[in-house]
Amino acid sequence: MNTREIFESAVAMLDEHGTVVAWTQAAERLVGYSAGDGVGRSAALVLPLSEETPTVSAFIAQCGDGWAGMIAVRHRDGRMLNINHRISMLRGQDETFRWLVSVPDIDTLSGEASSGSMRESLFIRAPIGIVVRDPQLRCVWVNDTIESHDGISRDRRFGRRLIDSMPGFEAEALEAVMRQALRGGTTAAHEYRAWPAEDPRREHAFSASCLQDAKGKALGVCNISVDSTSRRRVRERLAILSQASTRIGSTLDVKQTGQELADLAVPVLADYVAVELVEFIPGGEESSMDRPPVFRRAGQASIRPGVPESMSALGEAIFVPPASPLASVLRTGRSHLEPVLDTSPGTWIDHDPARAQKIREDGVHSLMVVPIRARRAVLGAAVFVRHEDPVPFQEDDLLLAEELVTRAALSLDNARQYARQHTTALALQRNLLPHCLRGGAAVEVASRYLPADMDAGVGGDWFDVIPLSGARVALVVGDVVGHGINAAATMGRLRTAVRTLADMELPPDELLARLDDTFQRLAEDDADAPGQTLAVAGATCVYAVYDPVTRRCTMARAGHPPPAIVDPQGKVTFPDLPTGTPLGLGLGVPFEAVELELPEGSLLALYTDGLIETRDDDIDVGMHRLGTALAQPARSLEALCTRATESVPGQAPSDDITLLLARTRSLSPARVASWTLPSDQSAVRSARHMAARQLTEWGLEGLVDPTKLIVSELVTNAGRHTTGPIGLRLIHHEVLTCEVFDTNVGFPHLRHTRSIDENGRGLFLVAQLSHRWGARTVSGGKVVWAEQDLAFARSNTRAFGSAVS
């Protein structure tokens, strides 16, 4: 055996009053006091005392027959040392007792004593055998554990040398070690085979430390025997714990984490392991509180191929018999150790006949069940079984199992919390995104949204297609910085804000400016909320408005990648569109819009940076890759969406991918009629006549009467508030749009008129007769518009009568 694995102990022997009666040189090296400084004085010299234990006697009394753990002792130079120590009770032949304070392995104290509670528990709490002998090597004091090490009873030991109690080669060798320690006044060590009949193969490390009096004279020798087979086993298990930090919790996946725990514990700790969790499928949600919890198999491993011990597959629900140890552990949150599993008839296993038969067939003889706890809640339990290994589970096995499960519990809880948040964020995002896109007469649209991978989480991408007046359409794509539920919630708020601002018919640059103000106010409100911090740092956005009448597209962006435009021949361009600042920065820099004319059949692609940015390539490479994927004008939009998103290299994306494609249409001039009217009393009569004639040409005779009334009211209002020319335009697309232009920038408002009022009912009638109405600012003035559903043209005239009555 490598002697470096046999530790040297610092030892102090105390009488029943707590006075030091013997000291070793190792103790001097540890605390700086020699035998002359320590022997004959109270152990309070180095031991900490408190109000609860004001004397050394009181301190020792609370240890019972013995105690092991971490303690702070006082060095001679005044500093405090945190050490693992053991206090053991020794019994004498005359029924007197002494206390032995020992600190193991002082040469590696700084490494082992400070490496955590698990190492402390495994090393310090392992039982040791102690015998104190006089200078003639006769036994005078023993502890209760030594008999299990060498098989010699206390009565056969007192007053005798070891060679008298157990003659033989081993006894002579151990006595030689004792004499060596006495001659040198230090510690000598040796390895020997244990001879108890129940386990003759176990190896022990034996140390002999010379006990000195106040003058440094040898009072005798202290023998400490440690089961070195168990010690090596402890070292192996500490290596397992070291692996646990890297092998358990490698991902935020609940089932994989449970499987990692099972794989690590087999075969080093158990022959079969099963990990049962409170139902986490689907989406990491627990079972409902109004029904008993459902447990599902989250991991299993066996030394046998195919895990034949298991009666359930991964993810399946697990039946938990109410009287079983598993049920007890889940109910109490305390571990269950059953070194020898009782499989006789009438025990708990008979409550589940199929399981009982399986346990007996597999030869299961030892069982541990350890609760999986996190944040004061029991998430499930891990079951450890032995059927091939003949050695039953012991306390140190349970200690290791609990440490492994504790480490896995944090990862499992993080995985469950992440799964829940990810699912919630994804559901929120999907509910907030449009379920049906309608491009109307302006564009044909298609979209694709791919959430980020599980490690990055759901992001804040959004897109929308918003119908506007005059057959126009607004296209928008945005990206909130960050991931998770906060980003998804912020995305929903911004999308709502964009729709509200779009209804105000704002041009793209002004809409982004208003959206920037809105984002800053939302962030300020969040920051001012008690206990809240700013959850989202910013967002980017691109907003475009396309008019199928003029085939012109006006767009602006706020820190967002530029749109891609593909003409009908397949040529791809990225317009020189001012970048703009991201939303929420509060820089006050105005946004700029660009207006382009697009041929009919052009493809407009709006996207988020997840489509063009990768960990390995620059953004220019991604934009070129996107352009190449879209340069197929003959393909359908759905095929182009697939082609573009599948062109992203690598594995799962680290950011959300959003793509919105719009293929432009144009309205035939035959579906648009425009007139310029003078601002005098003849304008109303002329407008009514021209509108009626145009509707007749379009075959919309059913809309003539309500349209004449709408035109009359809008033109009348325009003539009343402007001195310039009045424009009238009718657009026949999915609805009938009536637009009236004037040079006044003031917007009209509905009024609640009284029965005696002579005016103020015009806009009320317009609102009643139209599907929707509004106003927007244009160059040189404003446009007031009203839309009518074409289905109204096929209804009978009673509908018009009821609207104006």
Overview of the molecule:
The protein is α+β, with helices and mostly antiparallel strands and 805 residues long. It is built from 22 helices and 31 strands. The strands form 5 sheets. Strands 1, 2, 3, 4, 5, 6, 7, 8, 9 and 10 form a 10-stranded antiparallel sheet that branches. The longest helix has 38 residues. It is elongated and about 135 Å long. The protein starts with 9 loop residues before the first strand and ends with a helix. The N terminus is likely disordered.
In brief, what are we looking at here?
The protein is an alpha+beta fold and 805 residues long. It contains 22 helices and 31 strands. Helix 15 packs across helix 16, helix 17 runs antiparallel to helix 18 (637-646) and helix 19 (682-697) packs antiparallel against helix 20 (704-721).
Spell out the key features of this protein.
elongated, ten-stranded antiparallel beta sheet, 805 residues, 27% strand, alpha+beta, 22 helices
Distance between the termini: 109 Å
| Rg of Cα set | 43 Å
DSSP helix fraction: 25-40%
Please report the number of helical segments. 22
Low-confidence stretches: 1-6, 106-123, 281-291, 754-758
Largest sheet geometry: 10 strands, antiparallel
Q: Average the pLDDT over all residues and give the rounded result.
A: 82
Can you tell me the overall shape? elongated
Oligomer: single chain
Per DSSP E runs of 2 or more residues, the count of β-strands stands at: 31
Instruction: Provide the β-strand percentage band.
Output: 25-35%
How does the helix and strand content classify structurally? alpha+beta
